[in-house]
Amino acid sequence: MSQFKREGVTGTGRPSWDQHWMDAATLAAQMSTCASGRKVGAVFVREDRLLATGFNGVPSGYPHPETCPRRDAGIPSGQGLELCVCAHAEANGVANAARHGVSLQGATVYVTCQPCASCMGALANVGVKRVVFGGPYPDDRSQSIADHGGIALVCLT
Questions:
Q1: Mean predicted confidence (pLDDT) in 68-92
Q2: pTM
Q3: DSSP type of residue 119
Q4: Residues forming the active site
């Protein structure tokens, strides 16, 4: 059997659990309704079992936007978030878990980009202990909240 090289792949050619769940977060991101084109997905896991998923987008029942007011105004990523009706993937994942009575205490969240400070605060409040992310997000407070909340951050790129 031929071996292939891919970050996060074990010696057997099978993806690591981290890579498997990050792939699931990437799949969840495809459901995003964000009009800016920034598709983000989040997958919450404990003991390698799926607990909840989320993606960035508008609240349930809200019409999908055709344009993004932040992008249209030339506002950089991570700024002017109050202009957007969309919720971040992590926030939607937390809401989905709550809706179904699922505790996220001790969970790991896999998210396609580093959580912002607001989402990191929510993750700390529900007891998430590890965040594995695929790319950086321009919010220095996020790291500080993770440090104070005892949340391990792992960049998986």
A1: 87
A2: 0.87
A3: H
A4: 90
